Each structure stands twice: as C-alpha cells, then as structure tokens.
C-alpha cells in the first residue's frame, strides 16, 4: 500500500495521468471527462513494457486487438457476460510469464522506459541485434522467397496486363513486337537476353523491356539507361501524355509554359502511340 501511495504521489507531482477527453456514452451521446490517475497510468505503462519482452508477437497483437472489445464491455456495464469471462480467461493465460522489473522515468507528464528485466524474456541479443549475432541470416532466403511469392505472382499478373496490352496495341498498328523481362515470365514474355534482343532489333522488331533490371532499388530511369547502354542505343526518348516540353509540370503548375524553340530543349519529346492515360510501352523508348 505504501509503495502504491508513493507511485501516486510521485506520478502526480510529475503531471502523469492527466486526461481530458470527450467520450462516447452507451447510447451515443458525447460527454467530456477530466481524469487524473497517476498511479494507474504508471502501472499500465510498466506492464505494457514488460509484455513487449514476455509475450510472443501473435499473442501480443491479439491481446491488443481484443483490449478494445474488453474495454467496451466494461464501459457498457457488461461484466457478467459469457464474452467478458472468455476474454478474461484469455488474458489470464497470456499473463502466466509476464513478470519482472521495469524502470520508468517521469518528466513533465512523460513516462520514459529506462529498462526492463524478466526471467521469462524472449529477447536475446545473441540472436537478434543490429550488430553481429549467432543468427545465420542466409536461413531467411528461402522464407523470403516463399513469403513474397503471392506478391510476386500479383506483380506478374499486373505486368502481364500492361505489357501484353502494349504489345497488342503496337501489333494492331502493324508493328512486330517482342517482350523481354528481367524477371522470368515465360507464359507471356521472353527472358531478357541481350544477344536475342539485338537480333530482334536487327530484324526490324520492336522490343519491349519489362521488370527493369530485375534488381530492387533501381528507378525506371536507371533501368532504362542501363538497357540503352547494353543495346548501344543512339538515344532515349521519353513519351508522356502531354503535347510537348514545358518549363514545369503543366498538370501541377499553371504557370508552366511550352518550350517551342528546339535549341532551348535539354531533352527531345517524341510522341509515339500515346493512349489516353499512358504511353504504350513504358515512359521511355530506347532507340
């Protein structure tokens, strides 16, 4: 009891637990409430910190999710209900190993975590750290490939829609087209092979390159520049859904003016089969 009083007095002296809110009553009316609970606020904070090291990820997330439901039951006076009993049983189970010591610094209404220790802590610096550890990071490679598979499939479907749409649009205009992708998508595109792409170009075909370079963190500009160098392109033309080169983006800047003097242009604008919303291939054309 003495320790609880010390927590309340110390917390109150540091402005902890002051709450001025507008809450929603059971029937929907809004009511302003001003509360001061320094002791409870500090204990809640310390307990939450302790749970971060003692609870596994899924249990902690589910407890946080159900806490809203539990709070609504209490606020609405539904303590003696089967649902409240079931939730209480869940919480009791989660707290079997939540014990230890927590240090909290109080300063001008703030509670700062200053340390936590528990015999049941799930944290191990030897396994998970930003420095060197005993964990073999190569173990994650297979998991990353498997975990990211649905995203990869979605990207393939989206890429197929765009690339195939561009291919059909060009073919409707009598242009023979081949699509090559840096990421293997054999159902609708050839894998990118430089020598094969050059042969297609030598035969007068248009080659659409997809999936950038196949590497993350490369912008479309960088990927286009690299492909242009590999193909020994004479120039790179950018196609946009505007009618020329402006001093700024005309869709965003009303003061943008059209540059008519070709000698003042740093880039060459060339309109090639532009549709209503986007250019046929990508934003860039390697020539």
Which architecture of the largest domain per CATH?
A: 3-Layer(aba) Sandwich
How are helices and strands ordered from N to C? HEEHHHEEHHEEHEHEE
* Structural domain count: 2
Mean of pLDDT: 80
Radius of gyration: 31 Å
Q: Write down the CATH topology of the largest domain.
A: Carbamate kinase
Strand line-up of the largest beta sheet: 6-5-7
How large is the share of residues in beta strands? 15-25%
CA(first)-CA(last) distance = 82 Å
**CATH homologous superfamily classification of the largest domain:** Acetylglutamate kinase-like
Give structural notes.
This protein has 287 residues and is α/β, with parallel strands linked by helices. It has two domains: 2-130, Alpha-Beta Complex (Argininosuccinate synthetase, chain A, domain 2), CATH 3.90.1260; 150-286, Carbamate kinase (3-Layer(aba) Sandwich), CATH 3.40.1160.10. It has helices at 2-13, 38-54, 57-75, 82-94, 140-147, 149-172, 194-202, 220-230; strands spanning 18-24, 30-36, 101-107, 110-117, 177-181, 190-191, 206-210, 236-238, 284-286. The strands form four sheets. Strands 6-5-7 form a three-stranded parallel β-sheet, with helices on both faces. Strands 1-2 form a two-stranded antiparallel sheet. A hairpin with a 5-residue loop joins strand 1 and strand 2. Helix 1 crosses helix 2 (38-54) and helix 3 packs antiparallel against helix 4. The longest helix has 24 residues, at 149-172.
Describe what is shown at a glance:
The protein has 287 residues and is α/β, with parallel strands linked by helices. The chain has 2 domains: 2-130, Argininosuccinate synthetase, chain A, domain 2; 150-286, 3-Layer(aba) Sandwich (Carbamate kinase).
